[in-house]
Design a protein that fits this description.
By secondary structure, this protein is mainly β. It contains 1 helix and 68 strands. Strands 1, 3, 4, 6, 11, 12, 13 and 15 form an 8-stranded antiparallel sheet that branches. The N and C termini lie far apart (105 Å). The N terminus is likely disordered.
Length: 832
């Protein structure tokens, strides 16, 4: 039957015995009391009278029951609690409490036996004992989401079952199992329910040990499993000790400390002189003020025995090889049996063989490692068995990797023009003492491209020459380099780009019409002058039409050219320098462009297919001829123009997200798709890294006119000051590229680098010379200013190199400071 709300309150009051729901909670915390309805289930001659449940007799062919079934749950945590008294019991195997799966039947069934045992039906595990007429308490905590139920007897966790299937409900009363017999009368009082809590209460632990007894012969050992059970959320460390051992026996726990629930192996080892007899061992677990014990029995019998030993006890082998150790049987107390040998703990790819496999004296153990055996050190356990006697010894096995090699290519990317060739150095790097010769071959070559290695086989390096015929396929391909030595094979790759040959252009240059042009463009080169003719509507909008003479580039770049002349009839015909992600008409690009009559502008397309942007509109009054410069540093692009190629005016600077691999060169558009604009360029340069810093320089401060001086010292820590411009190696520096536009600024006198003292990140930290390291305080990025000077940014601190206070004192030590654009932070590079 289903109860209404009034009935729920009455039942809760009856079962609570007049106490509030919350005050009777025993297990855990965080619970919210609830009043649950129920329905009565009876069958056979069983009856329910209030809170008394009886099965007076066993009705043949029926599962007699007198129970209450409570509400069904499908999620959350729920606690059942009730006090049960077995008033009378003349039968056996009667269930008193169930956690029942509505769709899958019984799951947790707590039952009683006439012996006074209370047990879990599913596994027969004893939960405790009872006395007729004396009450005991049952708590179950159901976690519907996890599918677990915890069973508590008198407040102690006795069993946890898993795998429950929702929906699930609780029942209490009396229920005859298949093999059960009656009569029985039980009374349930204080039946309470809570929800939404957890089983954590006063943390405690239980301690047990198994087996309860062990028998060994003197000189042997045995072990027990000690189990620590966490009660009520106990999670502390339990330290384990053992007492009661024979005087010459030892006992050790592994691990000696168990945290929360867990087990530890107690290993008891006797000696040949251990006095035979039976000993009671007490295992003590201690955690703070909590202490529990468990006892086990140890019987020591005298008997013949043996021990094992290995010589050598440590073997080192290389993959693909083997090693041996002699395993000796050492008789004890007159032992004369044959011992069978086996090995365990072998690493992957290692096998073991004994010759002979059984012996009374010695056997040779051979450990063989395959060519792919696991590398490292492992403990191989040798087990000897004779009848019931078993002993072990160990061999420490180290497997070292077989000699091998790796391949690499430098550079990893090669660009050539049809009819030309390019090279890459293929390096063989020896691994684990490899000394063989490696034969090289190439695959994946485009049509019309051949590969040659010099030499074809090497132990160190070989030069790969890739040659493109005049009709070689244009585009980018991945060439795979394969190295073979014996049964070893490794590969590396080279990215090969073949560009179409352009008549009259220098090696590495390509000319192409971009977009749909009305008249074909062209490009040629003679005595330092490029002549580029281009049609096309414009370099603008969401797609461009122009002629492009370019090189393939990667990373930071500086493109400079002087537009000497252009003859386009349209006012906004244009010629200039460009860095472009690809040759697609709608590609991302940045350009500095000069028109015949309307001045100069910087244009960018920020993302593929979007409209190009004129950064500051046209700057009028800038005539042809004019120098143009475009600098890329990462994704930062800056445009300049100059009348003399020395003093530069910055147009604009912006961020454009562009792939590292790109193109750079000269762009010409007629702004008229029916005619050509022909422009001539000289002083054309495309410099990787944004700067060409090859050679030796003196570095002159703009404010003082003095140059950096390392004072002739050859030691780390010497200060960097300044000196009058003169001829001296103390004043000479060279730039050594590191990465991302940073350089070592290296003294030609000492070969030491410009560095921030103590790798400081503070303003005012002094500058010294020091050996190149890994902190980044000795790496600087020169950033061009519009007046031809450079500002040097430190990689580690982000601050800039400066002459403090614009000093003109030659003894002043240089320092670092936040960038402010002052003349004392600007430096001229004087090429020597």
């Amino acid at each position: 039957m289903k109860l209404n709300c009034i009935t729920k309150i009455i039942i809760a009051g009856i079962f609570a015995g007049g106490l509030s729901l919350t005050t009777r909670a025993q297990i855990g915390s965080g619970w919210t009391p609830i009043a649950e309805d129920f329905k009565v289930q009876t069958s056979g001659s069983a009856t329910v009278n209030g809170n008394v449940f009886s099965i007076p007799t066993t009705t043949s062919g029926t599962k007699d029951r007198a129970e209450r079934e409570y509400a069904t749950w499908s999620s959350g945590t729920h606690q059942f609690q009730g006090d049960c008294t077995i008033n009378s019991f003349g039968g056996n195997g009667i269930c008193i409490k169930q956690t029942f799966q509505k769709n899958n039947g019984p799951w947790n069934m707590v039952a009683v036996q006439n012996s006074g045992n209370i047990y879990e039906v599913s596994n027969g595990k004893s939960l405790g004992s009872f006395t007729v007429g004396k009450s005991f308490r049952i708590n179950t905590i159901l976690d519907c989401d996890a599918g677990t139920v915890q069973v508590y007897f008198n407040g102690q966790l006795k069993e946890t079952l898993t795998g429950g299937q929702n929906p699930i409900y609780d029942k209490c009363g009396t229920y005859r199992l298949d093999s059960g017999t009656a009569p029985i009368t039980a009374t349930w009082t204080n039946v309470l329910f809570w929800q939404g809590g957890s089983s954590s209460g006063s943390p405690d632990f239980s301690l047990s040990a198994s087996p309860s007894s062990q028998t060994v012969t003197a000189g042997n050992g045995t072990s027990y499993t000690t189990t620590v059970g966490a009660l009520n959320g106990f999670s502390s460390a339990v330290n384990l000790t053992v007492s009661g051992l024979p005087s010459d026996a030892t006992g050790s726990f592994n691990p000696a400390t168990v945290t929360g629930s867990g087990s530890s192996t107690l290993t008891v080892t006797t000696t040949a002189a251990t006095t035979p007899g039976t000993y009671t061992l007490t295992i003590t677990g201690t955690s703070g003020s909590l202490t529990h014990t468990a006892t086990v029995s140890l019987t020591v019998n005298p008997a013949p025995d043996f021990s094992l030993s290995a010589s050598p006890g440590s073997i080192t082998i290389v993959q693909g090889n083997n090693g041996t150790s002699t395993i000796s049987v050492n008789p004890l107390n007159g032992f004369s049996g044959s011992v069978s040998l086996s090995a365990s703990g072998l690493p992957s790819g290692v096998t073991a063989a004994f010759n002979p496999s059984g012996t009374t004296t010695t056997s040779t153990l051979t450990l063989t490692a395959s060519s792919s055996a696991a590398v490292g050190t492992a403990t191989v356990t040798i087990t000897g068995t004779s009848g019931s006697l078993t002993h072990t010894t160990t061999v420490s096995l180290t497997v070292n990797p077989a000699p091998d090699f790796s391949l690499s290519a430098s550079p990893g990317s090669v660009t050539i023009v049809q009819g030309n060739n390019g090279t890459s150095i293929i390096s063989v790097t020896a691994i684990n003492g490899f000394s063989g010769s490696v034969s090289l071959s190439a695959s994946g070559l485009p049509s019309g491209v051949t590969a040659a290695f010099n030499p074809s086989g090497t132990t160190t390096t070989s030069t790969l020459t890739l040659t493109a015929s005049s009709s070689a396929a244009v585009g980018t391909a991945t060439v795979t380099i394969t190295g073979i030595s014996g049964n070893l094979t490794h590969t590396t790759t080279v990215s090969l780009t073949v560009n179409a040959a352009s008549s009259g252009l220098p090696s590495g240059w390509t000319d192409k019409d971009i977009g749909s042009v009305g008249a074909a463009g062209s490009a040629s080169y003679n005595s330092g002058t490029f002549t580029v003719s281009g049609s096309g509507t414009d370099i603008s909008g969401s797609g461009d039409q122009f002629n492009y003479a370019y090189q393939s580039v990667s990373g930071d770049q500086t493109v400079i050219a002087r537009v000497v002349s252009e003859n386009g009839a349209q006012p906004y015909a244009k010629a200039g320098v460009m860095i472009r992600e690809s040759v697609a008409t709608n590609a991302v690009h940045a350009s500095v462009l000069l028109s015949p009559t309307n001045g100069v502008a910087m244009e960018v397309r920020l993302t593929t297919g979007t409209s190009a942007i004129n950064m500051v509109n046209w700057i009028h009054g800038v005539p042809v001829p004019q120098w143009l410069k475009l600098v890329r540093s990462g994704n930062a692009f800056t445009g300049y123009y100059s009348a003399n190629g020395s003093t530069w005016t910055q147009i604009a600077s912006t961020n454009v997200t562009m792939a590292s691999s790109a193109t750079a060169g000269l762009a010409v558009s007629a702004h008229d798709n029916t005619s050509l604009n022909t422009a001539t360029f000289d002083n054309v340069s495309i410099a990787a890294g944004g700067l060409n810093l090859a050679g030796v320089y003196q570095i002159q401060n703009l404010a003082s006119g003095l140059v950096l001086n390392q004072q002739g010292s050859l030691t780390n820590g010497s200060i960097i000051s300044q000196w009058t411009v003169t001829t001296s190696s103390n004043l000479d520096w060279q730039f050594i590229a590191t990465s991302n536009g940073y350089y070592q600024v290296n003294s030609c006198k000492s070969a030491l680098d410009l560095a921030v003292q103590g790798a400081s990140t503070a303003n005012g930290a002094g500058i010294v010379q020091w050996s190149f390291g890994s902190a980044g305080d000795d790496q600087w990025k020169p950033v061009a200013n519009g007046d031809g000077t450079y500002t040097f940014f430190n990689l580690h601190s982000g601050l800039v190199l400066e002459n403090p206070g614009s000093s003109t004192n030659k003894a002043t030590q240089m320092d670092q400071w936040s960038s402010n654009g002052g003349s004392n932070q600007k430096w001229n590079l004087l090429k020597q």
